[in-house]
Amino acid sequence: MHLIRDVLDKQIVDGNQVKIGKVDGMVAQLRQGKPPRVIAVEIGSIALARRLGLLPGRWMAILAAKLGGKRHAKPHRVAWSKARDIGLHIEFDIDVRKTAIFDWQVWLRDHIIGKIPGA
Amino acid sequence: MKKMLEISLGVVTSVGGFLEVGSLATAAQAGALFQFQLIWAILLGTICIIFLVEMAGRFAAVSKHTIADGIRERFGFNAFLWPLVSTFLVNFLVLSAEIGGVCIAAELATGIGFQLWALPVAFVAWLLLWKGTFGLIEKGVSLLGLVTLCFVAAAVILKPDWTRVAVSSVPSLPHHDTATYWFMAVSILGASISPYLFMFYSAGAIEDKWDKTYLGTNRAIAGLGMSFGGTISVGVLIVAALVLGANGITQVDDYHQLPLMLTPVFGFWGFVLFVASLGIACFGATAEIALQQAYLVAQGFGWNWGEDRKPREDPGFTMVYSVTILAAAIPIALGLDPLKLTIFSMALTAASLPLTVVPFLFLLNDKSYMGQHRNGVISNAAVLFVVALGFILAVVTIPLQILGGS
Questions:
Q1: CB contact, 8 Å: B76 with chain A?
Q2: What is the reported pLDDT for A70?
Q3: Shortest distance, CA B294 to any CA of chain A (angstroms)
Q4: DSSP annotation string for B148-205
Q5: C-alpha B242: how far from chain center
Q6: Which domain range does residue B252 map to?
């Protein structure tokens, strides 16, 4: 498998087939005397902004922390060990509701969308 | 039998959804000033959109990806930002122009100034997206759009010189207003090859869960639907040439001139038909473009998306179309001339096309996505040629047009 070709920027779904984002970044661990190993994928605006450059990454981290609190000061990570299936999408054995990834969607629903009649 | 029904429905919706403020305004202007001479631009644009729509459907059916998904996955986020940002901005201008089109129809019908209609129109379109399903928007609105066929009827009734019409399907050099001629050619190309049209089609194919058994259906819908759609644009151009141009109205720079197009043919009902055509066609396009903006962002960033789901299930998706549609109404509410905005945004569309179409062509030739259903030489060459032509003409003529002060 080629990490850049087959993993980066692919659609991620959780255990309930909910689309939770794309593989916005990947984290590898350097090990003494052994080849590096992929340990996690990153999701969210900070990971994306970092791909554009150091400065955008830093700004996005500050912005995200301001808006979402400390929990959002770093990119969301999902452990590579949770990956179950790589096909059209990459499926991770997690439940997005138990992570902070969709905090902003929940906020939108509770504060804006949910308040409009018919939602 | 089921396939036949699907094909007819698909063709009918493509035809009903083809005409919008861009193709109407550009064809009317071109007909008034240059008679039939620019028919070739409509033909070229239509051929290109047939290929692109067919590719969009084939790509969705074979790879199960929408275009936005595919470009991001294949080229990475940083490269994807270019088509994302350019399409988002151009779509936004076109959306504004479509809202303007509905507002003009409302002004013509009621006499109340178009600016006042902008927010109510945006609200009704938003309500349709909020409450409606994909099927209602795609099929319902497009079926009503069949009223635009009145332009074809009018063109036939006016008995144009068909030899001249046929001769004009081959490009020729202008005898007057050279810069305007080429600028109009660009605007026509931009109006025919709207990125929202084939991107929306690809999202629709995914929403309708197309697979390889739909390849034939897809080819028929793309070919027939878009050709009939292009015929309506040619109809508008012919009517404009024979009614406006022949009566000395060569510069269509005020939308109040437009309803005159159909009155010599249909009398008072011509006025009604024009207002209905403009209003319905632009309203349908408004709903589709706003939805396409939400598809684009949601697909690009990997959120859940789908028009058949309840707004509270996809807050991010819902938010994008709600904010876009409201924001796009603001320039019209502030009194920006919808006709000028339309022509300008169509030329800009032509200029921005390579950013979307070139990566898309790469995907269509990629074995890992398309397997044995890859593009042939002809479709690659045809699309590249028309898009390159549109781009070059746009880059040359847009500055001239701005400097020329019109």
A1: yes
A2: 84
A3: 14
A4: GGHHHHHHHHT---HHHHHHTTS----SS-HHHHHHHHHHHHHHHS-HHHHHHHHHHH
A5: 24
A6: 2-168+177-403
Q: Please state, as a whole number, how many other Cβ atoms lie within 10 Å of the Cβ of residue B195.
A: 25
Query: Residues of A with CB below 8 A from B131's CB?
Result: 118
H helix intervals, B35-66: 39-63
pLDDT at position B249, please?
86
List helix spans (H) across B193-314: 195-207, 215-220, 226-239, 263-266, 268-301
| Tokens linked to B42 | 């409509």
Dihedral sign computed on CA atoms, order B84, B85, B91, B95: positive
B385 shares contact with chain A (CB less than 8 Å): no
pLDDT band at A40 (very low <50, low <70, confident <90, very high): very high
Tokens coding B261: 């197009």
User: Is the confidence at residue A114, as pLDDT, over 90?
Assistant: no
A2-37 core/surface letters (b: 16 or more CB in 10 A; e: else): eeeeebbbbbbbbeeeebbbbbbbbbeeeeeeeeee
How many residues comprise chain A?
A: 119
Nearest to B389 by CA among B190, B191, B234: B190
Which chain B residues are Cβ-neighbours of A109 within 8 angstroms? 312, 315
CA distance B98 to B22: 8
Q: What is the mean pLDDT of residues A109-116?
A: 88
CB atoms within 10 A of CB B211: 11
Q: What is the C-alpha to C-alpha distance for residues A32 and A45, in angstroms, rounded to an integer?
A: 31
CATH code, domain with B26: 1.20.1740.10
Residue A55 pLDDT level (bands cut at 50, 70, 90): very high
The ipTM is 0.92
Q: How far is CA A30 from CA A25, A37, A104, B31, in A?
A: 16, 7, 33, 67
Confidence of residue A2 (pLDDT cuts 50, 70, 90): confident
Beta bridge partners of A37: A29
Q: Are residues B329 and B122 in contact, defined by beta-carbon separation less than 8 angstroms?
A: yes
Looking at chain A, which residue has its C-alpha nearest residue B65? A88
Determine, for residues A119 and B319 on separate chains, whether the beta-carbon distance falls below 8 Å: no
Percent of chain A scoring above 70 in pLDDT: 100
Number of folded domains in chain B?
1
Taking 50 as the pLDDT cut, the residues of chain B under it are 405-406
Residue of A nearest to B81 (CA): A52
Interface test with A, best of B64, B318, B325 (most A CBs within 10 A): B318
- What chain A holds in terms of domains, given with CATH numbers, is 3-115 (2.30.30.240)
| Full-model pTM | 0.94
Interface of B with A in 282-311 (CB under 8 A): 301-305, 310-311
Measured distance between the N- and C-terminal CA atoms of chain B, rounded to whole angstroms: 53
Q: What is the pLDDT of residue B38?
A: 97
